[in-house]
């Protein structure tokens, strides 16, 4: 294990580390939004699913099976999570408490009635707008029709979510195994723990089967012992030894909490005796490989759980795009497809255990 990954040593056999793999995009910060799609906004029109991210692609496939189709924690859009087929960034839960309340807060029968009326109203509005848009579409140029198609796609996505929301209105909200975790922004350990607690509780209660987390959201690493700068500034270290050292401290901090998340999922047993980690695919990645040089090549990728044959390092050698891994994950989720965005096939070297 390299120095930064040593904190994950206890989980060596539960994960696969990838190197020399990426989406083949360029643009530095401007391309970070491709992390889960491999497609820039400018390229989206040339692909049948636009620049949909893996999370929303899977959420669409699983629509209606859980109360919440997907859970976006921390931030989305700019870091690659939460992009729909229509190019819309889905709403995020900005704090751990927001996430907890979305998952478990029951506001009572009056609130549920208001929610039902709101959803019914929203659906009728969509029906009316749909009819108007179809009428408006006659005689448009091909470019305008393409834009209108994007609109219809967004409407259809909204309709599916509305129908799913209505279905779950009368279902009881699950009881979490713990109270809302404390999340003091001034306590970086506590705040990071709270983020991963929300993620675990979401899966433990089967409230959702797709979730994303930008782990540094709301966290200032300068509050860590030995770290004086913010994460973004440290990522642009310019090879300065002091900044590199602080960046390593910050990344070890992040990965230590990721390791704790692995451990907790592994400790939760399911009816068949397997662990929650066995049936949960945990992908850890980034839209940028080297912040100092602003490159999007050789992005960090760790895959854990999900029933894969782990305990390995796969050096891809840039012979397969990262979307090949995403296609493999989608197939493992039960999506019957032979392509995900820029994929050329499933990833060689990754097998189900």
Structure description:
By secondary structure, the chain is of the alpha/beta class. The protein has a single domain, classed as Alkaline Phosphatase, subunit A (3-Layer(aba) Sandwich), CATH 3.40.720. It contains eight helices and six strands. It has helices at 54-61, 96-104, 109-136, 142-167, 188-204, 231-235, 241-267, 322-332; strands spanning 15-19, 71-73, 211-213, 281-285, 301-305, 312-315. Strands 4-5-1-6 form a four-stranded mixed beta sheet, with no helix packed on it. Strands 2-3 form a two-stranded parallel sheet. Helix 2 runs parallel beside helix 5 (188-204), helix 3 (109-136) runs antiparallel to helix 4 (142-167) and helix 5 runs parallel beside helix 7 (241-267). The longest helix has 28 residues, at 109-136.
Oligomeric composition of the shown chains: single chain
* Class of secondary structure makeup: alpha/beta
Mean pLDDT: 88
How many separate domains make up the residues? 1
Shape: globular
Gross CATH architecture: 3-Layer(aba) Sandwich
* Strand neighbour order, sheet with most strands: 4-5-1-6
- Topology order in helix (H) and strand (E) letters: EHEHHHHEHHEEEH
The CATH topology label is Alkaline Phosphatase, subunit A
What are the salient characteristics of this protein?
37% helix, 353 residues, two-stranded parallel ribbon, four-stranded mixed sheet, 6 strands, 7% strand, alpha/beta, Alkaline Phosphatase, subunit A
């Amino acid at each position: 294990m390299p120095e930064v990954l040593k904190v994950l040593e206890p989980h060596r056999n539960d994960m696969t580390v990838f190197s020399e793999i990426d989406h083949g995009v360029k643009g530095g910060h401007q391309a970070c939004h491709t992390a889960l799609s491999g497609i820039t906004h400018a390229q989206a029109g040339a692909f049948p699913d636009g620049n949909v991210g893996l999370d929303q692609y899977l959420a669409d496939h699983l629509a209606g099976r859980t109360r919440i189709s997907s859970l976006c924690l921390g931030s989305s859009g700019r870091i690659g999570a939460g992009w729909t087929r229509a190019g819309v960034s889905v709403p995020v839960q900005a704090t751990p408490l927001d996430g907890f309340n979305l998952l478990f807060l029951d506001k009572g029968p009056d609130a549920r009635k208001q929610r039902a009326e709101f959803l019914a109203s929203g659906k009728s509005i969509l029906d009316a707008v749909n009819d108007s848009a179809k009428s408006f579409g006659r005689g448009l140029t091909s470019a305008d029709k393409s834009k209108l198609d994007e609109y219809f796609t967004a409407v259809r996505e909204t309709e599916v979510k509305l129908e799913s929301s209505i279905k779950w209105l009368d279902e009881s909200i699950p009881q979490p195994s713990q109270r809302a975790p404390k999340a003091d922004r001034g306590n970086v350990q506590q705040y990071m723990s709270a983020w991963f607690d929300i993620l675990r509780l979401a899966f433990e209660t089967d409230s959702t089967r797709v979730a994303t987390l930008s782990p540094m959201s709301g966290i200032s690493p300068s509050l860590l012992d030995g770290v004086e700068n913010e994460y973004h500034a440290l990522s642009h270290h310019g090879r300065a030894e002091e900044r590199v050292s602080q960046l390593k401290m910050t990344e070890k901090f992040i990965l230590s909490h990721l390791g704790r998340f692995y451990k907790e999922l592994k400790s939760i047993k399911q009816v068949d005796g397997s662990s929650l980690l066995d049936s949960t695919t945990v992908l850890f990645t980034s839209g940028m490989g080297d912040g100092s040089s602003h490159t999007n090549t050789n992005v960090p990728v760790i895959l854990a759980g999900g029933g894969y044959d782990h305990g390995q390092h796969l050096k891809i050698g840039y012979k397969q795009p990262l979307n090949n891994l995403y296609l493999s994950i989608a197939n493992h989720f039960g999506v019957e497809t032979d392509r995900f965005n820029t994929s050329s096939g499933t990833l060689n070297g990754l097998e189900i255990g």
